[in-house]
Amino acid sequence: QVRLAESGGGLVQTGGSLRLSCAASGTTCRYNVMGWYRQAPGKQRELVAVISVGGSANYADSVKGRFTISRDNAENSVHLQMDSLKPEDTAVYYCNARLGHAEVWGQGTQVTVSS
Fold it and tell me: pLDDT tens across 9-29, in order?
């Protein structure tokens, strides 16, 4: 079965950096869109950044200029470099992959930014 394996979450201070990684396994398909979403306590899940197989990326306004998404099509992986982290970035971050009508979610990884 297809699975998205996430890594890179953790605890950092304000202004610090983290790099999230997500790799799809259990399938040879290359997903059209891969990306990251996040959900903070008491809030709805929101888009952070997504990237197409061709490398076109979209970012939430709140992270533009601070986060960079990238992908390796051969490895079916996606990465999120997070710089200048703020306490409001604290959330569970979920990897997402989409191909046609199919959609797969990762289990989520916790990112905590302390003041």
Answer: 999 999 999 999 999 988 777
How far CA 17 is from CA of 26, 53, 56, in Å, comes to 30, 25, 23
Question: Cα–Cα distance between 88 and 23 in angstroms, integer?
Answer: 26
Residues 59-108: tens digit of each pLDDT: 999 999 999 999 998 888 999 999 999 999 999 999 999 988 889 999 99
Between CA 115 and CA 101 the distance in angstroms is: 41
Concatenating the DSSP letter of every residue in 4-44 gives: EEEE--EEEETT--EEEEEEEES-----SEEEEEEE-TTS-
Q: Nearest to residue 111, comparing CAs of 74, 100, 94, 79? A: 94
- Is the Cβ–Cβ distance between 37 and 93 less than 8 Å? yes
DSSP-derived letter for residue 106 is: -
Residue 92, burial from CB neighbour count under 10 angstroms (0-12, 13-18, 19+): middle
